[in-house]
Specification:
328 residues; alpha+beta; GMP Synthetase, Chain A, domain 3; 2 domains; 4-stranded mixed sheet; 17 strands; elongated; disordered N terminus
Amino acid sequence: MRTKRMLVILSVLTLLVSCFAGCGQEQEAQSGYYIYYLNKECTQNVPVAYEPQSDSDEEIVRDMIIRLSENPDSVDYQRPFRGNTQIINWTLENRQLQLYFGSEYYQMDSVTEVLSRAAVVRTLIQVSSVDSISFYVGDAPLMDGNGTPVGVMTAESFIENPGEQINSIQTATITLYFANAEGTGLVQEVQEQHYNSNISLEKLVMEQLIKGPISGNGQSAIPAGTKLINVSVLDGVCFVNLDEGFLNQNYEIDEGVVIYSIVNSLAELSNVNRVQISVNGDTSITYREKFSLAAVYERNLDYLAPVEEEPPTETGENGTTEEIQPEQ
């Protein structure tokens, strides 16, 4: 009798454990829809399963916009837009969704703006009658940091690494730009690195830039003690967030060398066209009174140091190599 009672108790406990475990896991959406939020560190989009209550595409769009404007249930996520920024109006015509925001939109820092825009686009583009999405601030098209219209966005505008090979070791050849010995120019170094596939190439590049060159030719342009907080790529722009150590000035290295060591190295990656640097997420800083971190920078090879050519040599009669002296 006691054995039978113990079996019953064990069965009940097993059932309870299973229920609690199931409650703690995020379930996949049966409908295939997700609402994309930001994680609490504001470094990436997080999909949360969503079940629409209507078969109407317009009703689904309306409900998704409401959910994007509200704080999610979990403290591990946050809604895309901070403060008073929100979608105040929208239209869906000819499979193009137009979203209208107030002037508060431009108060967001650039990193949060792109991540928030990605969350909205990735959420609403799932609706079958939405092929493209446009953002407007007031009645004017949304502009990026350079004053260029962002334009129409589609499902391909924000694609992240699928992470198919988890915890596998891969090999990559990366091209890095370090400061020369004098700190007046950049020297190029090509490295072959073995890395965990969970690490993005842009993170690998930044980690190696901070470590310094392998060959001993040159030096790291990034101030000693700088730590990488996060790095991400969205829509061809690489966002590099460094800690306050980046502001520890080393005046022996030209400020342009510091900036373009990062920009040029990241721009060697096929998915990066431009780079923006921030310090603890702040882009309102001017680096050494010359380079605004609010700007988005493109590759600039003008800082490359000239390569010193080795003098020609010839082999003497005794087999030794001698340097050819120029004629007087």
